[in-house]
Amino acid sequence: MIPLKKYLEISHVTKSYPKPGGGEAVIVEDFDVFLREGEFVSIIGHSGCGKSTVLSMVAGLSEVTNGAIILAGREVQGPGPDRGVVFQAPCLLEWLTALGNVRLGLDQVMTKEPVAKREEVARHYLELVGLGDSVSKRPRELSLGMRQRVGLARAFALAPKMLLLDEPFGMLDSLTRFELQEVLIDLWRQDRKTAMMVTHDVDEALFLSDRIVMMTSGPAATVGEIIDVPFPRPRRRAEVVEHPEYDALRERMIGFLEAQAHDDTAAA
What we know:
This protein is α/β, with parallel strands linked by helices and 268 residues long. The protein has a domain of 147 residues: P-loop containing nucleotide triphosphate hydrolases (Rossmann fold, 3-Layer(aba) Sandwich). It has eight helices and ten strands. Strands 6-7-8-3-9-10 form a six-stranded mixed β-sheet, sandwiched between helices. The chain has a four-stranded antiparallel β-sheet with strand order 2-1-4-5, covered by helices on one side.
């Protein structure tokens, strides 16, 4: 097999903010990771360790203090339609329908296409996420899980170079979260976009990812350990859980996180 090329390079990135009384608060320090083209990588760590800060810098929503982020050979400098972002909260416009919310982004990137074509694309992705019968509903008429499906449809419809997911299922109940993990992995499998997901859920990371980046606890959080996930694709949850390496990998991740929590307590 020909090795997949590097697609995203997060090269020795540091993010810090000035303190009111002087000095700097370092959130992330010397974060150094690359993603191969078509790879699904999760970042996991304790709350407040800087996971979302890393994703925000890749999205171009937060500036890098030191280091560089290179996507498809070009340095990231601000947000752009080449990165589709799904946030923990769906962030839908309440006065637009599900179709209108998905079409909103398409109207910005498909300017040369007729309105009918943009609507066709929006409907297609809403159908893929199971909302073909809800295209005319507004967010207030949709459950939280359905609204997050709209968020997934909106991100994929843009045909971005990279997909960024910031704890996309963190606000959902367990059953809905499992359902949407399946929706996500089925959508992703169609063209295997390079994807980075922030999560606090060990099982979610193992189910979805090719590799898992475990972050040390902040301040000045960085890469602590990287795990290669050996489960073959396509994946189904029951097969993943029954894989002979699943329990060992899960315990390794939990052990790392517990050690970080212990270090935090000792430092305090």
